[in-house]
Design brief:
It contains two helices and six strands; from the N terminus they run E-E-E-E-E-E-H-H. It is α+β, with helices and mostly antiparallel strands. It has two domains: about 60 residues, no CATH class; about 30 residues, no CATH class. The chain is globular.
Amino acid sequence: MKKPIPDKAEVAIEYPDKLYMGTFERSSRFEAHLDQNGISLTLERRGDLSTKKSVHLHLHYGLFAEILHELARTTKALPLEDESHRASLAEAAAALHDALGAKGA
């Protein structure tokens, strides 16, 4: 189920001879879910051919776990005064933790 993006996402894909960049804001939608091998994330911006775009990302569980560890290690980059972002990240991390620990999840 695709949901509205509550904030903003910026994507850049760089090749030796090309650079693709895109922004997904509140008018865009996202979908995230777990599957048998990892996590899937889709960002989608609707519109005509000149504005329509999408990004599909699949990360296997091992890489996603390492990303979560790296995020935890670098939380000092998020100022203590930024209570709103800290609270929303902590709430989401707690929800993931609870869901992973739930039997039959």
